[in-house]
Amino acid sequence: xxxPDTGAKPLKRCLWCGDDPLYVAYHDSxxxxxxHDDRALFEFLLLEGAxxxxxxxxxxxxxxxYRAAFDGFDPQRMARYGPPQVQRLLNDPGIVRNRLKIAAxxxxxxxxLDLQEEFGGKGGFSDYLWGYVDGRPIHNTWRNxxxxxxxxxxxxxxxxxxxxxxxxxxxxxICYSLMQAVGLxxxxxxxxxxxxxxxxxxxxxxxxxxxxx
Length: 213
Hints:
By secondary structure, the protein is mainly α. The protein has a single domain, classed as Hypothetical protein, domain 2 (Endonuclease III, domain 1), CATH 1.10.340. 49% of the residues lie in helices and 2% in strands. It contains 11 helices and 2 strands. The protein has helices spanning 21-29, 38-51, 56-61, 63-69, 75-78, 83-90, 99-118, 124-130, 153-164, 172-181, 193-200; strands at residues 138-139, 185-186. The protein has a two-stranded parallel ribbon with strand order 1-2. Helix 2 (38-51) crosses helix 10. It is globular. It starts with 20 loop residues before the first helix and ends in a 13-residue tail after the last helix.
């Protein structure tokens, strides 16, 4: 953000991030940046599911706790979770202690590995997901926050296919939030400085910001 004594105009951002430093940092560094790392994509898939019925800032504030609780979102370790791990998670105050969401995260870990293998192993989930937009972000031209859709035909199609494969908490709205977060769609408003940056930098190195190993 511009310093007040430089005389520069303050940067315009999407209104949803407000002035919460954590939310602003997420908006400026991650939201809408094309992401291709499978484990980072898996993290977003689970966090978006955890968000259902809650605000994103609630999950964002618990993100580090989720990473610790779910073994860094390692799908191979998570897929092997049994009753002891489930009980540990239900007792963890650092995450949303919802039994259905915890069970869904474990189920999705196994389904993620199956899908990844089907699409060629490491990087397979990225190939699958980006296939819905032919490998290139969709840059929308929304002028007002109220213009943004909660779901689109593409998110409905993604939702249906993930559900068919056995994934849980992958409704069309959750899938569209995922598409926005990982850059399949650029939904920054037209007067937001990040939209312009993402248009100029389709391979923005900030995509590495959330990679895990």
